[in-house]
Design brief:
heterodimer; A: alpha/beta; Glutaconate Coenzyme A-transferase; 6 helices; 21% helix; globular; B: alpha/beta; nine-stranded mixed beta sheet; three-stranded mixed beta sheet; 16% helix; 26% strand
Chain lengths: 214, 219
């Protein structure tokens, strides 16, 4: 694990990168990395996240700046700008049921090719997907998702990279930490090694590549 | 009761379905109001699918915590005994059949209980969020909705809007009726305050099974 500035961390990300970004309606999103992506004008990004928050907040800032070419999310209903860009053909949007989205990410990080889920059977979500019968029930084959970078927001990080989260800001963060080539973390508090009790570490240090310290 | 607005009637009636110890997930809108009418002695575990069990009331102004929100991103509180978890766990609870009741809104429900509640092609494409997982996985699905929209029935023969799940809902509560799907048939269990069976039939497109005795909701 290396400590970096937000400027240097974002400089690692090329245009066209696939990013998994933590957060649920902006809660648990690494806002400093988002601001730096906008400042460095990283463009044509593919964003995999629960939602695109709202204009001026979290991932919504990337959308406002026109930096997102494709979004894979479960909900865009509270961001009219995302809907506008989707309708105008400026941004491709894949809508995925929330439970399926997080499982596809989990599968990516856990070394699985995908998951079998009953969610979406008999709806438009099943179009173009393989269906399998197991013990009399029908499941969709949902493939794993991977990313170039996971942008994570934690509550506590130590200098090894162990992470813990607060309240509802955990959401997608520990799951995306498993599914990307490179992980970058911002944390509310950076604490000495040993201060986060072993039982309270949610994301183990070896998963983290970069901790933003300035 | 006639002075009570439709949303309050619906929320109060659905609150009667909740029992102590249940894990319950409420959708946005009228479903959220259900929590306001649960008697103090009934202890429910309310889930917010963004990663919380033990969701409490909306905080007083200035008392919210920016890292404690509900699935709509609004500030909430966590009751003593609450717990938090990630989204994989949250949807494992939902899809895995651990949620006893989910209460959701609807655009349309059909004769067999199939639900459409997530999109109007060309008009409203917000994404399904957690709705498809909730309807597919919860033990019991209760729909909270006004009986008609702009005078048109919402309980229809066949949904014309995209379906949410292949799994039918269990109960529909409107301000006019309580309808249960018994053996795949829409059955009128109760009428709303001051509403006759004939009025319910007139406001419903789907064929209803009418038992000999249909009592009025007791609120």
């Amino acid at each position: 694990m290396k400590t970096v500035s937000a400027v240097d961390a974002v400089a690692l990300i090329p245009n066209g990168a696939t990013l998994m970004i933590g957060g649920f309606m902006g809660v648990g999103t690494p806002e400093r990395l988002i601001d730096e992506l906008v400042r460095q004008r990283k463009s044509d990004l593919t964003v995999i996240a629960n939602d695109t928050a709202m204009p001026g907040c979290g991932i919504g800032k990337l959308v406002d700046a026109g930096l997102v070419g494709r979004t894979i999310a479960s909900h865009i209903g509270l961001n009219p700008e995302t809907q506008k860009q989707m309708i105008a053909g400026k941004m491709a949007v894949d809508l995925v049921p929330q439970g399926t989205l997080i499982e596809r990410i989990r599968a990516g990080g856990f070394g699985l090719g995908g998951v079998l889920t009953p969610t979406g059977v008999g709806t438009v979500v099943e179009e173009g997907k393989q269906k399998v019968q197991i013990n009399g029930s029908t499941y969709l084959v949902e493939t794993a998702l991977h990313a170039d970078f996971a942008l994570i927001d934690a509550f506590l990080a130590d200098y090894l990279g162990n992470l813990s989260y607060a309240l509802t800001a955990r959401n997608f963060n520990p799951v995306i930490a498993m599914a990307a080539e490179t992980t970058i973390v911002t944390a509310e508090h950076i604490v000495p090694v040993g201060l986060i009790a072993p039982d309270h570490v949610i994301t183990p240090a070896p998963l983290i590549d970069y901790l933003v310290t300035s | 009761m006639s002075a009570v607005d439709p949303q309050t009637i619906i929320a109060k009636r659905i609150a009667q379905e909740l029992r102590s110890g249940m894990l319950v997930n409420l959708g946005i809108g009228i479903p959220t109001m259900v929590a306001n009418y649960v008697p103090a002695e009934v202890k429910i575990f309310f889930q917010s699918e963004n990663g919380l069990i033990g969701t409490g009331p909306i905080p007083e102004q200035g008392m919210g915590h920016r890292l404690l929100t509900d699935a709509g991103g609004r500030p909430v509180t966590a009751l003593p005994g609450a717990c938090t978890f990630d989204s994989a766990m949250s949807f494992g609870l939902i899809r895995g059949g651990h949620v006893d009741i989910t209460v959701l809104g609807a655009l349309q429900v059909d004769t067999h209980g199939l639900l459409a509640n997530w999109m109007i092609p060309g008009k409203m494409v917000p994404g399904m969020g957690g709705a498809m997982d909730l309807v597919t996985g919860a033990k019991r699905v209760i729909i909270a909705m006004q009986h008609t929209a702009k005078g048109k029935p919402k309980i229809v023969n066949k949904c014309t809007l995209p379906l949410t799940s292949a799994r039918p809902v269990d109960l529909v509560v409107s301000e006019m009726a309580v309808i249960e799907y018994v053996g795949g048939r829409a059955t009128l269990l109760e009428t709303g305050p001051g509403v006759s069976v004939e009025e319910v039939i007139a406001a419903t497109e789907a064929q209803l099974t009418i038992p000999n005795k249909v009592p009025e909701m007791r609120l």
